[in-house]
Amino acid sequence: MQSNKRARKELLIGYCFIIPAVVYMLLFIGYPIIYNWIISFQDVTAKTLGSSVRDIIGFNNYRAIFTNVTFRRALLNTFIYTVGCLVIQFSLGFLFAMFFTKKFKLSKPIRGFIIISWMLPVTVTALIFRFMFAEGNGIVNAILLNLGLISEPVGWLLQGGTAMLVLIIANSWVGIPFNMLLLTTGLNHIPEDIYEAASIDGATGIQKFFKITIPLLKPTIMSVLVLGFVLTFKVFDLVYVMTGGGPVDATEVLSTYSYKLSFQLFRFGEGAAVANVLFVCLFLVALVYLKTISKDEVI
Amino acid sequence: MRKRLALLMALAMMVGAMGACGGSGDSQTDKTTGTNAETKTEAGNKGSSGDKQEITFWHYMSEDKEGKFVNQAVEEFNNSQDEIYVTAQYLPREELMKQYTIGVVSGELPDCGMVDNPDHNSYASMGVFEDITDLYDAWDEASFLEGSINSCYYEGKLYGIPWGNNCLGLFYNKTMLDEAGIEVPTTWSELEAACEVLTTDSTKGLAISAIGNEEGTFQYMPWLLSSGGSVMDLTSDGSKESMTYLSGLIEKGYISKESVNWTQADAEKQFASGLAAMMINGPWQFSGLAEDAPDLEYGVAKVPKADDGTYASVLGGENIAICAGANIEASWKFLTWMTSEEKSQEICKSIGRFSPRADVDSQEMFSDDPLNSVFAEIMPDAQSRGPSPDWPEISAAIYTAQQEVFTGQKDVDTAMANAQAKIDEINAE
Prior knowledge:
The complex is a heterodimer.
Chain A: H1 2-40, H2 46-49, H3 60-66, H4 69-101, H5 107-119, H6 122-132, H7 139-146, H8 160-188, H9 192-200, H10 205-233, H11 237-242, H12 254-264, H13 268-298
Chain B: H1 2-18, H2 23-29, H3 33-43, E1 53-59, H4 67-80, E2 84-90, H5 93-106, E3 112-116, H6 120-126, H7 133-137, H8 146-150, E4 153-154, E5 157-158, E6 161-166, E7 169-173, H9 174-180, H10 188-198, E8 204-207, H11 214-226, H12 237-251, H13 264-272, E9 276-281, H14 286-292, E10 298-301, E11 316-322, H15 328-338, H16 341-350, H17 362-365, H18 372-378, H19 391-406, H20 412-428
Helix pairs in contact in B: 11-12, 11-19, 19-20
């Protein structure tokens, strides 16, 4: 009886602690999400935004965006961008992580320097890359011209294909340190003696990598990939500042297109629908992430 | 986006809760000491009387440039009487526009604010602004140029007052033109010939902004109108001629291909740093040019006309309006003070705009000023965009076509036909 009471009291105190967080989540995260779903099923344009009565039009907004060429382009672009970034930043980040876990002089300071690019505000990064890849007086063209690799300046941000490439490079520059940091932590958690034992058994470097490093690092790798996917998939500022989705719609991604629909063309319903497509994609990935995390905990 | 929206909502709410954005809710009701203390610190002094009404005014004149003069004007108003205290709040243009739309839903709007005139109809249709038709009709100083005041009307009701006008002209680098021995071009052929001479490895003949937003459309309008084209008929010969001409200049390298990513401010930087011998821009760049390149010798002329066409320019500018649910009375006093004959002249002159008032003779006012006088001459014929609540979509069709052509993705015929189809669809809705 006594202990039961105490348990109840403790439970109550526990709830008191989480209530602020729960209220905060419901208000500031839950409310906008639900609100966004509601308006994606309504006819919300400039004329109806202010009125309390809006026509419910079912899936018309979704139908409209899926028949829209720009949306399909944006959806495809978002995946190209995400996959491109993930491949580059994960593979290079992994290499760097392997490199910097080797104990040599200056390894820590240099690792620190590399992280700077991750700490810079994305807007700054975007502007720097915009200047570097400018056609007329950008440093990239100047270097390539002087090396004789190209015969005339390339309009990097003026053609769809290269503009996307530059975006991927810019984001990878930010993403590599992030991947490196997480993977280094994972690598440091693999006990040295396992490698020693393997060496004694005559394992080669490659064997050690594939039979020890990768399997033991798997939980970290999964988390890094999923986190990287989420962070990259919802890109906004980088694209918005560097290309604004252009030229025309060559680098339009879901987030920038949703923004354009809502705040420039005032088609709020369709903008919300696009945002929800983005949400669903991320939600699915988040489920995978949660699953990997729970597996981690079992281990 | 999702997170952004959440963030924005959160911000909007927090700002509202803290009362940091001042006025709208508080102004009418409270005369509490708390707010007064705040006023005093904000004002930094001014033995303020206990019962001033506070209102907020949103604008997008950047604080290091024209914004200084806006703040000056606001301060002057605050000192000129002791009933109303105005707090001016600067937000970048895009941000300001976004805040209006968010404000419609959240109710967090300022008392009054600035709006770009082609967008005024859209925001009026959204319900951002108060209908001030009656106040305006009763105002004995109500005298504005037709094109300007028309942009404030939506469905027969007035939602704002014109605040400052501008238009586009051709800026040219005097030194470069003199060295090359070229006269200031007046027609498209002359402009092309001039560009041919002026374009070198390091310098482009002309800088324009063809960016994928309203600025791109704004800059395209003079060309479109000069060759007899029209927003309502983009597939006409005149319309296509203008697009063909401009894309020709880009293909020949006279205009940088990067113009598709340039804002008008970027074009100004190119011109100021000598990377372009000429540019298309407006009078609001004078202050920027004076700072970026104090020694630059430049002149201004009309945007060259099509060889068999007429001079044309486009009307740009800002209106000011009272927001829904605001302190209308106080805001109206402030707005009419700013747009009165005397103040309108003063303020517009300082920020590189032209007074939209019919009783201000800008041509006479600037008769001694070689730069402003050119714009004063262009102003009366400058054509407005819209007014239409659908203008943002029409504009999107136009700047998209421009970008498609300039980046070589589509030929002129296809791009213009597509744009026209979009506009037809918008009009049909």
